[in-house]
Amino acid sequence: xxxxxxxRRAARHAIRAPERWLxxxxxxxxxxxxxxxxxxxxEEPSAHDFxxxxxxxxxxxxxxxxxxxxxxxxHRGRCVLxxxxxxxxxxxxxxxxxxxxxxxPFNLFSASKILTAMLIHALAEDHLIDLDRRVDxxxxxxxxxxxxxxRVRHLLNHTAGIPDMPTGIDLVAALRTGNIPWxxxxxxxxxxxxxxxxxxxxxxxxxxxxxxxxxxxxSDLQTLLRTRLIEPAGIEGLTYGVPADQVARVAxxxxxGIAAPRLMAEIFERNIGVDLDTAVHLTNSxxxxxxxxxxxxxxxxxxxxxxxxxxxxxxxxxxxxxxxLQTKTIQNAVTDVTPVQLDGTFGFPIRYGLGxxxxxxxxxxxGLNTRGAFGHLGFTGVVVYADPVRELAVAFLNxxxxxxxxxxVRWYWILxxxxxxxxxGRLPWRHG
Length: 432
Prior knowledge:
This protein is α+β, with helices and mostly antiparallel strands. It has one domain (4-116, 228-421): 3-Layer(aba) Sandwich (Beta-lactamase). Helices cover 36% and strands 12% of the residues. The strands form 2 sheets. A 9-stranded antiparallel β-sheet has the order 1-3-2-12-11-10-9-8-7, sandwiched between helices. A hairpin with a 4-residue loop joins strand 8 and strand 9 (357-358). Helix 4 packs parallel to helix 9 and helix 4 crosses helix 10. The longest helix has 20 residues, at 4-23. The protein is globular and about 60 Å long.
């Protein structure tokens, strides 16, 4: 029997070995002088060590997986952390571009779904959309192939049964420009009875939600988002894409980390419609960055996103007191959730509200012990969420796109440390 100290050394080696082995195949970026790359915005003092949390972010950045990283945290309605580090554009093997500034727009990717979902909820509050209506009530012709029982609610909580992109169309062009043919979605055949199970719908259901919103209002989605939510909330920014003259300012993405395992790559391509490398390149294109994709291309800063999340935490009131949404509208979105079960797309347990991902005690994208928190993940490491019991609004933005890398452990540790930093309170909700 080996001596205990020998066993401990062997165990430590076993833990380190995968990281050492994987690191040989990892694509990372060289890191420059941090003093020249860090930007710090106006921050209010706090009893919690948010500056220490930023030290963890810098260690993540120094791992070379991300051209740029930003973290903004609101606690009890005050901005206690607002910082960025890195470059607007830094591709593997190329010279990095300009330094990311605090007003540099980041693409939220799938975290865009929160804003699209809350816009749908706003239109329901205005009695323009009924979440329990069948989709073909708004979109005649959609109900073919057994889709007649799919309701608007099913589109929001990923239970519609049509998670995969249609075939037979130019998916690269469709995703690059946002022009996805409606008839291709109408021809989809459901994989299960609506409401019976959930599997992440990365694109399909959100394109349908866009069409419903535009049909019932006669307005385009960009205008609806601005006039119904963003302007009343007093937020500058958060738009689908950016104006053409602002494309160069948007933080660009780089494919880093390790080549995705075959199964993971197949799941991604089936759900999104293109492979990971193609997705990264097309999301940097001017066409994508000026298009309207309801599930994938809202651009803004961490402070802007946290301001929107704070609106939700405050029960629908903007910081100036303007009523933007009814509290019950927000509560419905985050309390009508799917049961705990394996997601049919990702293969791990996840719960969805009506347009948001939900936190949990044992498994959560926002860290353990985050029951009641709600938000969304964005391709592949963007995370935005609100935690009512901790009174936190968080925007953790980054531009590296690793599907797999040892450094992603530190990414999750940052989220976990944040939940440990701020204790849970007793109030289940902050009413505005």
